[in-house]
Amino acid sequence: MSGLRVIVGCKRVIDYAVKIRVKPDKTGVITDGVKHSMNPFDEIAVEEAVRMKEKKLASEVIAVSCGPIQCQETLRTAMAMGADKSIHVEVDAATYENLQPLHVAKILSKVAQEEKADIVFTGKQAIDDDCNQTGQMVAALLDWPQATFASKIEKANGELTVTREIDGGLETIKVQVPAVLTADLRLNEPRYATLPNIMKAKKKPMAKKKPADYGVDVGPRQSILKVEDPPVRQAGSKLDSVETLVTKLRDAGLVPS
Ligand code: AMP
């Protein structure tokens, strides 16, 4: 099972450390002038794909990002981490706000077919929309097996043995390639791109495409009605004794009297 061709979905999202602000008209969140980075789970997927290449399990790692022109920075980061080449599927900023997992899944599955990929690797979820749908939809569209929430991936007897993080434990499954994998947090610790590799990445090939090149209509299938901030946490207070605490809790009906 050498020479696997691996496609990795790399979404550009608002950086995980940024405090999100809702637009005054509540139609979405403010993205202008806000730091963006590669979705953290996608960095983990890129890292794993690059490790597969280093172990001679994969022959080529192709990073794909659908979104506005700035996604090219995300792809350069993926290539600086070790991806061989990349494909930018350009979607303008307004369309990107309504780009949905099904759109991306259709694009990734077409790319997988064109590139004769053996593995489509995505993050388990994008930290902006928290959908956790794209990888699963790619598997359905391609009719490939899927191993989601992967925290360990090994090659055994021509198959992949994947440990999955599930509620309260771990599940180990075998999948045959071609397959879809989605990366969970504990799969690995992504490397930092070194300066020489950042320089090298500038010369790696990046194909520029549009959704129409893959025959995908990215017209919205749902509309956002409202985006709201989480409720503001009430200020706490200090009490001088456990008795006062119990009385307060009883009065508030939070413990039986
Ligand atoms: P989601 O289903 O939106 O939570 O996204 C799950 C994963 O799909 C992400 O971690 C990415 O690997 C991939 N993905 C989602 N949107 C995009 C995009 N616009 N471009 C490339 N990959 C994406």
UniProtKB/TrEMBL annotation:
A single GO BP: amino acid catabolic process
Compartment list: Mitochondrion matrix
PROSITE patterns assigned to the protein according to its UniProt record, in alphabetical order: ETF_BETA
GO CC terms, sorted: mitochondrial matrix
One Pfam family, short name: ETF
The organism's place on the tree of life at top rank: Eukaryota
Keyword tags: Electron transport, Mitochondrion, Transport
Molecular function GO labels: electron transfer activity
Electron transfer flavoprotein alpha/beta-subunit N-terminal domain boundaries: 26-218
Subunit organization: Heterodimer of an alpha and a beta subunit. Heterodimer composed of ETFA and ETFB. Identified in a complex that contains ETFA, ETFB and ETFRF1. Interacts with ACADM.
Function in brief: Heterodimeric electron transfer flavoprotein that accepts electrons from several mitochondrial dehydrogenases, including acyl-CoA dehydrogenases, glutaryl-CoA and sarcosine dehydrogenase. It transfers the electrons to the main mitochondrial respiratory chain via ETF-ubiquinone oxidoreductase. Required for normal mitochondrial fatty acid oxidation and normal amino acid metabolism. ETFB binds an AMP molecule that probably has a purely structural role. The electron transfer flavoprotein serves as a specific electron acceptor for several dehydrogenases, including five acyl-CoA dehydrogenases, glutaryl-CoA and sarcosine dehydrogenase. It transfers the electrons to the main mitochondrial respiratory chain via ETF-ubiquinone oxidoreductase (ETF dehydrogenase).
Family note: Belongs to the ETF beta-subunit/FixA family.
PANTHER family noted in UniProt: ELECTRON TRANSFER FLAVOPROTEIN BETA-SUBUNIT, ELECTRON TRANSFER FLAVOPROTEIN SUBUNIT BETA
Record-given protein name: Electron transfer flavoprotein subunit beta
